[in-house]
Amino acid sequence: MQVSHSFAGSCELSVVIPVYNEEAGLDALISRVTASAQAIFADSYELILVNDGSKDGSWNAICQHAARDPRIVAINLSRNHGHQLALTAGLHHVRGQLVFVLDADLQDPPELLGPMLEKVRAGYDVVYGQRIKRSGETAFKRGTASLFYRTLASMVDTDIPRDTGDFRLMTRRVVDQLNAMPERYRFIRGLVSYIGFNQIAFPYDRDARFAGETNYPLRKMIALAVDAITSFSVVPLRFASHLGMLFGLAGLGALVWVVWAWLQGGAVQGWASLAALTLILGSVQLLVLGVFGEYLGRMYMEGKQRPLFIISEVRRHPIAANEEPE
Ligand code: UDP
Ligand code: MG
Hints:
Elements: E1 11-19, H1 23-41, E2 45-51, H2 58-68, E3 72-77, H3 83-91, E4 96-101, H4 113-121, E5 126-134, H5 139-155, E6 164-171, H6 172-179, H7 188-195, E7 199-206, H8 218-232, H9 235-263, H10 271-303, E8 311-315, H11 318-323
Parallel strand pairs: 1-2, 1-4, 2-3, 5-7
Antiparallel strand pairs: 3-8, 4-6, 5-6
Helix pairs in contact: 1-2, 5-8, 6-7, 9-10
């Protein structure tokens, strides 16, 4: 496993970072990641930066860094694919025996590589960062995140740890398994839990963003949550039968009451109650159809088997490229 030089087709560590409009923080990111990787692995590492269709100068900046530093691999996606697919693209290019994943905004401190590595050396295959404190995040983000993890846990058999992101150090065999999963609705932290082996949490304080602002507005957070739930659970599909039973029982109760009231001589009247009941029933049926549609749509999209990501350019140091052609 010991390889003296990262150009030799394989190296000890691959760092994978998806980048979307992170120009302002890139220099700081690269210098901090380089410092911590170099301190441990000397030259036997690579830093894979995946530009996910940034609209700012991120790609140019990445290319400049890659031209100066042969350990930097620059990957440009053809357009914005979203965080999880950008990360997937990076993971498909790793050559390291260990893979370190972090965000580009320095919310996950690169300096934790050393302490996380100790856990891997102690026999763990996945060391995932678990947030104790989330600086710079609004109460709303914390609240929705917590609600999401609770809902997910109640629906999913796989034990997906709460308050984790994609910040983690993994061995190559985990990444190989991950890369063998063809699904397009990827909730990577969940897939990693599903893979198993020995996993351990690594509690850390999540810093505030170094520069720029979050690329995860509420809309994307909801989409990620729906991806997570639908790709790990079919529990929502059972809502239909549960709701059916609930409304059936309620209907039966209402029937008994109506008959009883009629026997007492009290006329049961009112179209308002009927209208309300019809509306409620109608909306519940539509809701259930919507849930079915969510699963059906995903099956349809998966069925097309389109590639997960489209790459427009990979810049690797020429020596590395000669030794292991793409
Ligand atoms: N990101 C990406 N594509 C996107 C959105 C985000 O590659 O469409 C990257 C982004 O550059 C960062 C990571 O994904 O490295 C996490 O994004 P962000 O920090 O905006 O999310 P948050 O930390 O607020 O959840
Ligand atoms: Mg962030």
